[in-house]
Amino acid sequence: MQLHNDHQSHHRRTGGAPLHSGAPDASGPAVPSGPAVHETPTAGAGAAVVGRERVLEEVLQSLAGTAQGAGCVLVGESGIGKTAVMQHALRHLGDETFVVQVRGSEFAGRTPFGALTFLLSDLDPELSNHPVMILRGLTELIKERANGRPVLLAVDNAEELDEFSAMVLTQMVLNRSAGMLVAFRDFSSAPGEFTGLWRDGILARVDLEPLTVLEGAAYLGSLLGGKVSRAAAAAIHGYAGGNPQLLSLASSDFQDSGRLRMHNGSWVLAPGEDIRGGRVASAVLNSLNGLSAAQTQLLQLLSMAGSLPLPVVLAQLDSAELDELQEHGTVALDIRPVPDVRISSPVLVRSLRSGLGPARQRRLFEELAPFLNTVEGFVLDDVLLARWLEAIGEVPPAQLAVRAARRATAAGNPDSAVAVLSAAFNTQEENAGAVVELARARTEQGEYGAALGILSRYRGSEAAPDAGDRIRLLLAECRVLCIEATGLRDPRSAAAPAEPARMRHTELFSQVEDEITALGKTPGIDIVELRRDLILARAECHSAHGRFLDNATYLASEEVETAAADLEFRILRSAWLCEAWGMTSRQDDAVELAAQMERLLPGAGLSAGTYARVAGKLLHTYLITGELHACERLLDSAAATGMEGTYTELGQGLLHAFAGRPEPALAALLPAVGQLAVGGPAAFLPLAAAAAAYCHAMDGRLDEALQYLQIQRGAADGGPWTVRRGARHFAALAEAALGTETGSRRFASLAAQDHKRSAYAYELLARLTAMRLGDEDSLDEVLSVAASLQGDFAALCESYAKGLGNADAQLLLRASEMAGNSGHQLLAREISEHALGIASGAGDRATVRFIHRSRRATGPETAAEAADEILGALTARERSIARKAAAGTSNKKIAEELGISVRTVEGHLYQVYSKLHVGSRRELARTIAEQAGAKK
């Protein structure tokens, strides 16, 4: 973000004061304000700069091992963290480098050699009369003080240097008397001496870009002291951009407004209205104080209109003043048939808009009104125009309000849709289109009762919608009734829908089908669009209720005209089909189609809501087919294209949990649980909490596992079938890891239910888990289900079951390799343990040695991790008991500490001895110790 890079910038007006004062690690320790210039031997290396680790590493690589006369130039806007990176880099260099720190300032820049005054005072007065003599004298002085150490010139705020100081410093680099680390806000306007050093390859250039949402989350966490949910980080990042200084101010704005609060150890985003004004807006608007009145008015117009055609802009502003704004990066020109001008920074847009009251907004609208619909290419965005009219007390035209509401809801902004419709209509019952869009917006808000009430009141009115609107009304009602039929209810409604009414939406779907067929080719009604809406609504309904075989059949049989331009419909239809195929028996086809859709996503121009829906379906497809590397790729791509927030965070947590990586899983799941508890959507809370419970149990944190199981059990059990089924899967895993004796039976029961609804992918997963928990009867079931499915995961499960059934160590090793290659780390380790046990029992020393060599080549390096590795095949309760028993604790004492019976302890120890192939506590202790010792 360019705050404003001219000589009136906030940084300059404060006389060189640090832009990060009071902010933690992304900015690092504050540098004294004012034109301070000093030399220091550097201290020991400090902590890494939060969010700037890669940049710091790049800078250090540029400085490491370089001869005198080389170095690095840091480039980045005000507040981006250049001073912080510089100071951390200097601390990393240590006392072996002699550092001369020079800090430019507006005051010192007015005087020749002003930045070097502190050194000039130590020179012989006879040497201070000519630049060449000064250069020679300073070079000798610094060389003497360095006492044989290499010299580094650390120059901050270099754009403030006077020309003589710039000449002396760059000449010292050119004559190889010193290296240089120099920082600029705008390198394009740097003195020629510095740009020459860069062009000649003497100085490497490192640009500091704004922090990403993920980097911003880490920075905010260091600032606030605790994990920050991705939803909170994304909201603050959207409010302030990736500038660390503004992120620091934004965190205070969000706390003051109540939008950011601590919940269960994580900072989460609370529901609430948008923040107006605040510290960020003040800081950004202060940077515009040097602008002319005409420039300021243009920026205000652009903040309200989004963009303006160049002819309209030139009617407001002299071209020279526009060029000045463009040179400073404040505005940008989009080349189109009629070029458009827009503000470069979304943060500046929001800040400007927040400072405009209704009266000023009205004057700006009146200023722009003569150009509307008269200048070629000048059409305001529907949402912006409707909200602008609403803000100045005007009633948006009905058609504009309906279009704006539709776009706002599709973009994931249902609050704006409700506001626009409320401003446009005293009662939406007079307009069928408004009723449809308001019902959709309320549904997206989770206010299902309100959505049904809106539709019911319209149906009871005297309104007579045309056939197309009638079908859209029915489809809106179908969607709400479908959601409620899954058990997910409006929290404002105390009563659940009556049982006979729960599946009423299926009758409505049939009614819609009949009415569309009856329309034929009625003039004035887009039958193709209505049929597409029906197809997507029914596909969503089938998925929500777990009817995947029905969905696969339905989507494959429905033929509809699909224009090349209607890419969104094709992607959505394919996303539902991917899931249906992946859940039934066409896993290879599902993965292939998912990869095709994934490649289309970046350039498809989908709305935020549609993108999230499609990405969620593709992610689920990859998970259930065992394609974990594809999951990682999709999540990285989604984050890179702006799909940040709770869904991405939850997806990453579930991926790591599914792969058996508890630590990174919990890093994502814990803030996600807090965010879901405070801000929703409620349907995902049981899933996130159950996965967190399982990961805690895997790590042996039993109390925490029980705590999150309680959260899972206490949450509402509603929402899409896949979400509810995922929650039951992880909850059963957590309970099994805690030592409950019903684990394998629980998964056998889940598998039977999955089979009835043709959810064969989940059936295979459940059968496999029951087999892993010791259910010998599940072995044949795994073979049977895996043989009927496609894909690498099914082949892996089949090899695992055959290897166990035939006691074939070699086949198990191949299965372990397949699991490891596909990202299933815990499963790979467990299969390897079985192979080791079979090989040991058969006296196959060659295979035993091979397994141990493989583990040493790829295994953990610390003794603690090595002990964890050998215990990896055990449940969390078994690991806890094994450690205590190996330490010499008696069965009775273990039972007392864990609150279980002595008989239960004995049963767990029997399982431990069997899995680790030992016969006593002494052997158990020796086995763990030997494994740990081998890794030291």
Description of the structure:
The chain is mainly alpha-helical. It is built from 46 helices and twelve strands. The protein has a six-stranded mixed beta sheet with strand order 1-3-4-5-2-6, with helices on both faces. Strand 11 (331-334) and strand 12 (340-343) form a beta hairpin. Helix 18 packs parallel to helix 20 (432-444) and helix 32 (685-698) runs antiparallel to helix 33. Residues 1-47, 494-500 and 860-865 have low confidence and may be disordered.
Helices, strands, pairings?
Elements: H1 10-13, E1 38-41, H2 53-63, E2 71-75, H3 82-93, E3 98-103, H4 117-120, H5 131-146, E4 151-156, H6 163-174, E5 179-184, H7 192-199, E6 203-207, H8 213-224, E7 227-228, H9 230-240, H10 244-257, E8 260-263, E9 266-269, H11 278-286, H12 293-305, E10 308-309, H13 310-316, H14 319-327, E11 331-334, E12 340-343, H15 346-354, H16 358-368, H17 382-391, H18 398-410, H19 414-424, H20 432-444, H21 448-459, H22 467-485, H23 504-519, H24 527-544, H25 548-557, H26 567-583, H27 587-600, H28 608-624, H29 628-640, H30 646-659, H31 662-679, H32 685-698, H33 702-714, H34 721-737, H35 743-756, H36 760-772, H37 777-787, H38 792-806, H39 809-821, H40 825-841, H41 845-858, H42 863-870, H43 876-886, H44 891-898, H45 902-916, H46 921-935
Parallel strand pairs: 2-5, 2-6, 3-4, 4-5, 7-9
Antiparallel strand pairs: 1-3, 8-9, 10-12, 11-12
